[in-house]
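Async update (no meeting this week)

Hi team, since we skipped the sync, here's where things stand on the single-chain job. The sequence we agreed to prioritize is pasted below, unchanged from the tracker. I ran it this morning and attached the output directly underneath so nobody has to dig for it. Comments welcome in thread, and please keep replies under the output.
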Amino acid sequence: MRRVFIGSDHGGIELKAALVEELDAARIGFTDMGVHSGEAADYPDIAQALCARVLEENESLGVLICGTGIGISIAANKVPGIRAALCSEEYSASMSRRHNDANVLCLGGRVTGPELAKSILRAFLASSFEGGRHQRRVDKLEPHC
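Output:
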């Protein structure tokens, strides 16, 4: 199983703790990239650090959490090579991997309950990119400067 990098700002710390427990129980290798306290943290910093690790380690995936998931997903998608998907249910999480080759799952700690988030995470991790006709579209997402 590939390595999962997981991180959050202060708005996602509680949900991150629940997902860390889920990863640990499933014996999935992960790295908790913080934060580890409720003190205010800037989600762009968390997103950039985690995305760099996802890109460094082949076949790894990331999970990012902020209050709504919106800000951290915007920040993650600014990193070339990252395809971050903000998901609120299992079907989108699976399809983000299958059709979009998403490599980072984003969640909202204040809008997604822990049991649903665990189910979304499982769907994301259980799916893989189908390639084929979807590869052409994914290729168009990368800057060609």
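Quick observations from my side:
The chain has one domain: 4-58+65-132.
The mean pLDDT is 95.
Reply here if anything looks off.
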